[in-house]
Automatic annotation (TrEMBL):
This is 26S proteasome regulatory subunit RPN2 C-terminal domain-containing protein. It comes from the Eukaryota. The lineage of its organism: Eukaryota, Sar, Alveolata, Dinophyceae, Peridiniales. It holds the Pfam family RPN2_C. Residues 487-574, 631-743 form the 26S proteasome regulatory subunit RPN2 C-terminal domain. Belongs to the proteasome subunit S1 family. It comes from Zooxanthella nutricula.
């Protein structure tokens, strides 16, 4: 007692404070979600393998798309098995594709804050000595930002600032990566010192680094509405000659006005009246972010007006896409708003209508949205088809075949588009990306503007805004990782550990909310029977040859029929004079001509002369000859023979009946077995038990209940908030605290990792500057 009293805080109180700090900083949520994503990962690596082999190996665009799709599929799962198995294939990425490939590691390990430096150590800039490619180093800095996105970490911020300082004179690519990384780490912090550093990079007036610096300023100043930042960015956007920097500044201005609504009006109005279309483009996203999720009538009216009146296609595209942001809180109303726009003569407007539907209706499988996107998937313009397949991928995130058949048809269509060598590369790029989006986060994450409690997520709105900039810059596709949120139900003890023996009941058929079935590798027989290509000229030549052969057969068959008729008559005459000898003659005639299915010439049987016709005439002749020969024989012997034959026939009949009965029985049994096989499968259960931690989709929440018994035993854990919460983190009450707890521990994961992974990471890539 006395020593404890002397301490300021007891051990327990210190531990509680540590837990509280973890909870308030968001670190506890990140770590628990990471565990869930790792344990429940259902990514289909065979699907990636099929995509990899379907696309042209020399095409850098589809290669880049496959790497990015893999990143999204494995987002937050920490599983990079596919990349490690295909290092040689991965090394084909060069220049900016290499930057994106390295950055995708950040997407895969998103949230793995503790290990971030170790994971990227091979790729991060090394001091002195031989350096790796600046593209992979820049990508690693960007990846560092993605891993720490939305979780402020002073140490990482310091490291990235240091890199930004040291790279000022080295390479734009590294500055680009460092700026984006810094923006993500310090997102929405309104940190003045970071802003000043980024401004210095912006003012160097180099297009690539300047664009990233502007985006980063927007990320740091999200929703600040700072007049100083606004005035400086506007002024620089008018000064610079680089379109990239102007676009970066325009979007940064939009981000600073996030959720500012009426406060943003003066800036939006000023940008809309600007003669530079890029600033008007930024103004549309300004409306999108200022009024995100409000369904504000004034904002909708203004965006619709811009979408039909502006002279720039880019501005019209931005205006229509922004409708998806403003109406994201009532996605069911969006299809009616963009219906006419989706039929516009302008392909940019059609593309934007598709993307708006995908953004607002993500994961909802909305039928009206599907009906608008379906015709756009076969649009005449390549980029409209791309937008439609990406939007459809968003629409069907986490949708099982059990809930709608439309998703099965769409998945098949995607694989067909990816494998079609005649399809435009932009559409194939979209289809590969759509696969990654549909199965994002190991099939355990959804793209959602709102948190589980219905609060708008800043990260999601900003992520979607930057994701749509892929039109200009592919590496921004990785920003989609900000949008993803795990669809998990995780039961926790008071120490924030995950117990194994907690379960919930889902009162719906398992197939309705099931994971998609993994693809099966083709069987060996199917692989052997690969279809061979037949040229049209070869087919014509073959048909002509067959026709000639058929004509020749018909002629021969006609002449042989005449010959046969003469032969038959002579055989008949001979039979009447020579009696028994006729049998052997007839026999030879039959053996020569009556091979089943052939004529005398040995070709396929025709109607002109069939073997059965030939045989039947000969048999009649034999019967007549036999009758004449036997007339002189003894009648008694004949009778005896007939009696013997009759008794034998009776015996045979008895045996035949018996065997017939047996055959009937066998037949019936066989039919019975067939009937049993053909019987409908056991009816699908109407409910299922889900073990902790489990995936619970939005539509599934209403079916979730907490059973009082599991496997006939009373449930040990009961939720503290029993009636209100059915998804997310659920604190549990232990009804039997004296018993030992069975918990999922972090060290289990690391052991599994060590077993699965190779002991040392391989060298990243080998590139030469000539490539």
């Amino acid at each position: 007692g006395a020593p404890e009293a002397a301490d300021d805080l007891s051990e327990e109180a210190k531990e509680n404070l540590t837990q509280l700090r973890k909870i308030l900083s968001g670190r506890a949520c990140i770590d628990l979600n990471l565990q869930f994503m790792y344990r429940n990962n259902r990514s289909d690596l065979l699907l990636l393998e099929i995509i990899k082999t379907s696309v042209d190996q020399k095409n850098s665009i589809t290669h880049n798309a496959t790497v990015m799709a893999h990143g999204l599929m494995q987002c937050g799962t920490t599983s990079d098995v596919f990349l490690r198995k295909n290092l040689e294939w991965l090394a084909k990425a060069t220049k900016w594709a290499q930057f994106s490939a390295t950055a995708s590691l950040g997407v895969i390990h998103k949230g793995n804050i503790k290990e971030s430096r170790a994971i990227l150590s091979t790729y991060l800039p090394q001091g002195g000595g031989q350096r790796a490619s600046p593209y992979s180093e820049g990508g690693a800095l960007y990846a560092m930002g993605i891993i720490h996105a939305s979780h402020y970490d002073p140490e990482t911020k310091g490291y990235l600032l240091e890199q930004l300082h040291s790279q000022q004179s080295v390479a734009e690519v590294l500055q680009h990566g460092a700026c984006l990384g810094l923006g993500l780490v310090c997102m929405a912090t309104n940190d003045e010192s970071v802003y000043e550093e980024l401004k210095q990079t912006l003012y160097t007036d180099t297009a690539v680094a300047g664009e990233a610096a502007a985006y980063a300023i927007g990320l740091v100043m999200v929703g600040s509405g700072s007049e100083k930042v606004v005035s400086e960015l506007l002024a620089y956007a008018h000064e610079t000659q680089h379109e990239k920097i102007v676009r970066g500044c325009a979007l940064a201005l939009a981000m600073t006005m996030f959720r500012r609504e009426e406060e943003a009006e003066s800036l939006i109005q000023q940008m809309l009246l600007d003669k530079d279309p890029i600033l008007r483009y930024g103004a549309c996203f300004g409306i999108a972010l200022a009024y995100v999720g409000t369904s504000h009538n004034g904002a909708i009216r203004r965006l619709l007006h811009i979408s039909v009146s502006d002279v720039s296609d880019d501005v019209r595209r931005a205006a229509v896409m922004s409708l998806g942001f403003v109406l994201c809180n009532v996605p069911d109303q969006l299809p009616a708003v963009v219906k006419l726009l989706s039929e516009s003569y302008n392909p940019h407007v059609r593309y934007a209508a598709a993307m708006a539907l995908g953004i607002a209706c993500a994961g909802s499988a909305n039928k009206d949205a599907h009906n608008l996107l379906q015709p756009l998937m076969s649009d005449a313009t390549d980029f409209v088809r791309q937008g439609a397949v990406i939007a459809m991928g968003l629409l069907y995130m986490q949708t099982s075949v059990g809930s709608t058949d439309r998703v099965k048809a769409f998945r098949e269509k995607l694989l067909k588009v990816i494998g079609d060598k005649h399809e435009d590369v932009m559409t194939r790029f979209g289809a590969i990306l759509a696969n990654g989006i549909m199965d994002a986060g190991g099939r355990n994450a959804n793209a959602s503007f709102f948190s589980k409690s219905g609060v708008l997520r800043p990260g999601a709105a900003i992520g979607f805004c930057l994701f749509t900039q892929m039109w200009y810059w592919f590496p921004l596709i990785h920003m989609f990782s900000l949008v993803l949120t795990p669809t998990a139900l995780i039961g926790l003890t008071e120490k924030l550990k995950i117990p194994k023996n907690f379960a919930v009941k889902s009162g719906a058929r398992p197939s309705v909310f099931a994971y998609p079935e993994p693809l099966q590798p083709p069987k060996k027989e199917e692989q052997a029977k690969a279809a061979t290509a037949v040229l049209s000229t070869a087919a014509k030549a073959k048909a002509l040859k067959e026709k000639k052969e058929k004509d020749a057969e018909l002629k021969k068959a006609a002449s042989s029929a005449d010959v046969d008729m003469d032969e038959k008559s002579s055989v008949a005459e001979a039979a009447s004079t020579r009696g028994g000898d006729a049998v052997s003659v007839a026999g030879t005639a039959v053996s020569a001509a009556a091979t089943p299915g052939t004529t005398v010439v040995g070709s396929v049987a025709t109607d002109s002369v069939a073997a059965s016709d030939l045989g039947s005439d000969n048999m009649e002749v034999d019967d007549q000859a036999a009758a004449a020969a036997s007339a002189s024989k003894d009648a008694a012997a004949k009778e005896a023979a007939s009696k013997e034959a009759a008794s034998k026939a009776a015996e045979d009949k008895g045996e035949a009946d018996a065997s017939g009965d047996k055959k009937d029985e066998d037949k019936k049994e066989g039919e019975g077995e067939k009937k049993e096989d053909a019987k409908p499968e056991a009816p699908e259960p109407t409910e299922e038990i889900l073990n902790n931690p489990c995936r619970v989709l939005k539509a599934q929440q209403q079916h979730i209940t907490f059973p009082t018994e599991i496997d006939g035993k009373p449930a040990r854990y009961t939720p503290v908030l029993r009636g209100t919460r059915r998804v997310g983190f659920l604190l549990l009450q232990d009804t039997r605290p004296d018993e030992a707890e069975e918990l999922f521990l972090d060290d289990e994961k690391t052991k599994e990792d060590q077993e699965e992974q190779e002991p040392s990471p391989p060298e990243p890539f080998e590139w030469s500057e000539n490539e």
